[in-house]
Amino acid sequence: MPRGASPSARRFRLTPPIVREHPIQKQICDVLRIEIAPPGKLSLPGVVWWSIDHAAYSGEVPGIRIDRGIIAGIPDTFLLYRGQAHLIEIKALDGVLSEAQQSVASAVLGAGGRVGVARDAGEVLTCIDAWQIPRARRVAAML
């Protein structure tokens, strides 16, 4: 402690923000590995999926990202089956879609893709089943 500082003085320390969806996304990815295939690998029935990491979208130089086509509102998980895009936005229990997320979802739907919102792996499996995307059925949809 610096000389003359009061015992109750605390050091200022920067800490990264807590992203509440990250543990949920990890759980979902673990289930997708079991049910479909590893990310970026084609399953036997012809499904490929991956997650999109854009947690630091509003970083120090967002203009550079926008110039490269990286926009706000892109859903977290992408699945492709029979040439159709299926995107899933992951939200915490109390999370709501931002205006940017609503806009991208509308564009995807307008282009013929599908969009879902999930709060856990069970809801992701419910979307996958509703979209009739083949999966191994090793994990029950209601986790």
Provide a descriptive summary of the structure in words:
The chain has one domain (21-130): Trna Endonuclease, Chain: A, domain 1 (3-Layer(aba) Sandwich), CATH 3.40.1350.10. The radius of gyration is 19 Å and the shape is globular. Helix content is 30%, strand content 15%. The longest helix has 15 residues, at 21-35. Strands 1-2-3-4 form a four-stranded mixed beta sheet, with helices on both faces. The mean pLDDT is 87. The chain has helices spanning 21-35, 62-67, 99-110, 121-130, and strands spanning 47-51, 77-81, 84-90, 114-118. It is built from four helices and four strands, in the order αβαββαβα.
Task: Give the secondary structure arrangement, pairings included.
Elements: H1 21-35, E1 47-51, H2 62-67, E2 77-81, E3 84-90, H3 99-110, E4 114-118, H4 121-130
